[in-house]
Design goal:
The N terminus is likely disordered. With about 475 residues, the protein is α+β, with helices and mostly antiparallel strands. A hairpin with a 6-residue loop joins strand 5 and strand 6. It has 17 helices and six strands. The structure holds zinc ion. Zinc ion binds next to helix 5. Zinc ion (ZN) binds next to helix 5.
Length: about 475
């Protein structure tokens, strides 16, 4: 059925095309290669043939199915978004016999041993044919649209690159009429995450009723963060989430990225054993009456990463205002916030220490005058530079009069961090605000226990979804 590629023609290469790379690693997993260190480029002819046979068996098996509603119709259903107009889903499908369908699908997936006098558009070795939408996801975005050789319907591909594209769907989460592939330029990350996804997709295909339309809100982003969780080494590159459909009706390609520092921070923070209360409270801070905290956090990580830190501060501010003092989550959430601004946003430890020192001093002042509602006043002025400056100057007088200390309340360096024009001053003022809350919380000024809000917790990011 599947004519085996020749030994000289099987070579799989890692190219500059992210989706081909995902497919190449999916081939490695489909070949049953257990050695985690091996590259797709090391596949032997026999291993390559084995992977291709598995894929062909899956698509040929759809010939027996009456329609996409049948049990185990996963690949038939998915074929409309992956391989539209292919032999799997021809318009005359219903009028063909099962044997005819099998023959046609098998022929489509028979890799030609022909070598053309044209280089593969991706890796440069001799191509075996020209391929278009039936075999290659051609995204809607112009920069990701694959080049077309003039006079031909598609691009020249070698057997290895063509098989990589056929294997790509195994490395994707296929739900909601879209396929989502997680890519990284860190080959080790890509290898492990793709291997895991191939396992899950094959499980899904075995158990599925064929319905690939159902999906939770932002489930792809949540799954992507779950994928980071199990990776055990520091990440050398960020991750990109490719969400695409090749469907005739809704061709689409969206790419969302997490830069390396944030990807590494999330991996480390989410890692089993590392997950402290701080992260749990960050999930809680993202919780709304309409959206689970994990889901909103995963969305922000890919789409609005700058909101991750701001959401934590807004949460503490909201509760402090409502409760009249720092909530039970304060100390752990502030520690997590500090690690975030240090590791992801590049705030130095010295800058954090400087602001924390000022926060401690302000906290000391506030504790001497709790009855005067000074905390509430500080809450109101902390985000507005002019008001905060006036407030600090006023407090500096008190500080000098009341204390037998030689240092001023605010040093020149601290003043500069808070007010010198730049894109970080807002962040530094937020850091000051939560440092004050941290001081008060550590001195026993907690307004309540963090357990008061257990009902807002969810743990989607640490759960393995099958
Ligand atoms: Zn190639």
């Amino acid at each position: 059925m599947n004519s085996a590629p020749s030994a000289s023609g099987h070579g799989v290469r890692l190219t500059a095309h992210p989706l081909q790379r995902v497919g190449a690693y999916a081939l490695l997993a489909l070949a049953g290669v257990a050695d985690q260190q091996r590259s797709p480029e090391s596949l032997t002819a026999a291993e390559f043939k084995h992977a291709c046979r598995r894929m062909t068996a899956d698509v040929v098996a759809t010939a027996d199915l009456p329609d996409t509603k049948a049990p185990q119709a996963f690949w038939l259903s998915a074929s409309y978004l992956l391989w539209p107009n292919s032999k799997m889903n021809t318009t005359n499908r219903k009028s063909l016999s099962i044997a005819e369908r099998r023959t046609q699908i098998g022929r489509w997936r028979s890799y030609s041993a022909t070598v053309l006098d044209v280089p593969c558009a991706l890796c440069g070795v001799a191509a075996c044919g020209f391929y278009g939408k039936v075999d290659v996801p051609l995204g809607a975005s112009v920069e990701h649209r694959n080049t077309t050789v003039p006079g031909h319907e598609g691009m020249a591909l070698c057997v290895g690159c063509l098989a990589s594209f056929h294997a790509l769907p195994y490395g994707c989460s296929i739900r909601g009429g879209r396929a989502a592939a997680l890519h990284s330029w860190d080959d080790d990350v890509l290898a492990r995450m793709t291997r895991r996804q191939v396992h899950r997709t094959r499980q899904q295909a075995l158990m599925s009723t064929g319905d690939t339309t159902a999906t939770g809100r932002y489930s792809r982003e949540v799954e992507a963060l779950q994928g980071l969780r199990r990776y055990e080494h520091p990440m050398r590159a960020g991750v990109e989430l490719y969400v695409f459909s090749n469907s005739n009706k809704q061709q689409a390609l969206d790419v969302h990225s997490i830069e390396q520092p944030l990807a590494e921070w999330l991996r480390e923070t989410l890692h089993p054993g590392q997950l402290g209360s701080g992260f749990r409270y960050l999930v809680r801070a993202h919780h709304t009456s309409k959206t689970l905290g994990s889901v909103r956090l995963a969305y922000n990580a890919f789409h609005l990463p700058e909101r991750l830190a701001g959401t934590a501060v807004a949460y503490l501010a909201r509760l402090t205002d409502a409760l009249g003092g720092p909530p039970g989550e304060t100390v752990e959430l502030v520690a997590l916030y500090q690690s975030f601004v240090r590791e992801v946003l590049g705030v130095t430890q010295r800058e954090i220490d400087q602001i924390e020192q000022l926060g401690d001093r302000i906290g000391q002042l506030l504790r001497t005058r709790p009855e005067r509602g000074t905390l509430k006043e500080f809450e109101h002025v902390h985000s507005e530079p002019n008001k905060l400056q006036t407030w600090l100057k006023k407090q500096a007088v008190d500080w000098t009069l009341r204390r037998e200390v030689s240092e001023p309340l605010v040093s020149t360096e601290q003043w500069r961090l808070l007010f010198e024009p730049g894109d970080r001053v807002r962040l530094h003022r937020d850091l000051l605000f939560i440092s004050v809350l941290q001081h008060l919380a550590k001195q026993g000024w907690l307004a309540d226990a963090a357990t008061e809000r257990n009902d807002q917790d969810d743990n989607l990011l640490v759960e393995e979804r099958q």
